[in-house]
Amino acid sequence: MPKWAWQYAAVALGGACGAVARLLVAQLSGRFLGTGFPIGTFIINISGSCFIGWFLTLRARFSETLVFGVAVGFVGAYTTFSTYMFESNGLIENGAWIKAGFNLVGSVIAGLLAVRLGIYLAAK
User: Fold this and answer.
1) pTM, full prediction
2) Residue 74 to residues 3, 18, 33, 84, 117, Cα–Cα distance (Å)
3) pLDDT above 90 covers what percent of the chain?
4) CA–CA distance, 81 with 107 (Å, rounded to integer)
5) Phi/psi at 94 (nearest 5 deg)?
6) Do the beta carbons of residue 111 and residue 54 sit within 8 Å?
7) Which residues contact 68 (CB under 8 A, 6 or more apart)?
């Protein structure tokens, strides 16, 4: 099988595992910590951000296929917030403070507006 096929398979497998992990963490958080605040999503976003920072810092130690499977597949399905944070940090590290600020603030505002647009469109 060619290398690219292994990478796609790794992303698919990692994605399936990440989605299940997300559901499990969300359900356990709700059961043990309550549902008055989206604590499950908060835990997922923060733990995913910590994990992707750790893993991608050490990525040179792993095969490219494993990096795709874990970073794109597992963490991507577990939370995209972690990628958003990692990329924003990269902009800051490269001195692109304005781009980082736009990415951070712009994504939050545009994301909230997009959710509201989706709700509006669904109600029509």
Assistant:
1) 0.80
2) 19, 4, 24, 15, 29
3) 90
4) 10
5) -90, 5
6) no
7) 7, 10, 11, 14
